[in-house]
Backbone:
């Protein structure tokens, strides 16, 4: 069955903070409901903990590391799921049940396996 990445966009929150406990209950309920489709995923720490790596020029060029990203938007990439679904329609149906769908947005993208199949 095809794999789909569900990219979660929400306000920039620390999901491990005690005040997020109610939201985390909603995600656990989603896991219980959609567990057969979930093949992986995790929440991401706040953008304040992120590090951006760039290589200047071609491969082997100078490595530049900076703090960030510095999000100028209300919603940031805050987590992801790897979903196994029969088709895009089923992936959308599953993604609509992820709490991020009403807290922000969920972007669903087909995964291209590294073996090209």
Residues:
């Amino acid at each position: 069955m095809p794999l789909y990445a569900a990219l979660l966009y929400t306000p920039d929150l620390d999901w491990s903070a005690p005040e997020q406990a109610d939201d985390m209950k909603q995600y656990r309920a989603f896991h219980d409901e959609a567990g057969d489709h979930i093949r992986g995923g995790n929440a991401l720490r706040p953008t304040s903990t992120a590090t951006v790596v760039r290589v200047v020029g071609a491969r082997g060029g100078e490595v530049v590391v900076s703090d960030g990203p510095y999000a100028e938007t209300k919603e940031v990439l805050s987590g992801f799921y790897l979903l196994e679904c029969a088709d895009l329609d089923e992936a959308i149906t599953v993604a609509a049940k992820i709490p991020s769908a009403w807290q922000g947005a969920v972007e669903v993208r087909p995964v291209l396996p590294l073996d090209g199949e």
Remarks:
- The chain has a mean pLDDT of 90.
